[in-house]
Amino acid sequence: YSAMFHGGIRSPDGEVVYRVAEALATSGTFAVAEELPLKGFGLPHGLDGRLYSVFGPGMSVALVPFYVVAEMINATAWYAGNSDIMRNRYFGDMPLAGHANRFVISLFNAFMTTLLVGVFFLWLLKLHVPVSIAEAGGYLLGFATLFFPYSSYFFSETLCAIFCILAFMNVNLFSETSYPKLLLAGFFLGIAITVH
User: Fold this and answer.
1) CB 3.0-4.6 Å disulfide test: which of 42, 102, 142, 195 passes with 58?
2) What is the pTM for the complete model shown?
3) CA end-to-end span of the chain
4) Cα dist from 61 to 40, 101, 141, whole Å
């Protein structure tokens, strides 16, 4: 997936999620500093007058460690020697450092899609599916569904699917499920709702 990713954020939805992660990492708030050039998209004003995302906060929270790593990588100025400003229709004029940061952090879904395939494979094994069929199921999920193109985009469906499968893994379909497992399943579904 990382060999095929686009190398940046390619949708205004993804930019909004990114800016919330940036705000969380730099100032510890869900409030975003400025609107997108697409005025009014995805960032309405809250009761305090600041801008907040219309998308769930779960993915932005998950992105904070990726943002921190991207900042550490970009501190090396690996992109130096190129034009200082780049133009993007969603983000407007932006210093190259901003694009470099988005390049690094956009690998998030490549990692998450790989994790999703692994979790799905383990769930199939838990359902007593033969290993060869579980492997085929993992390959089909990873390469024959929308998760394949989504591995290159900054959409939240992949992360949401991981939490949904983790929830289902805690529900025993063949006998009664214990209360702690049901609580854990509910916990994972609750997180999934915050993501998507």
Assistant:
1) 195
2) 0.87
3) 22
4) 23, 17, 25
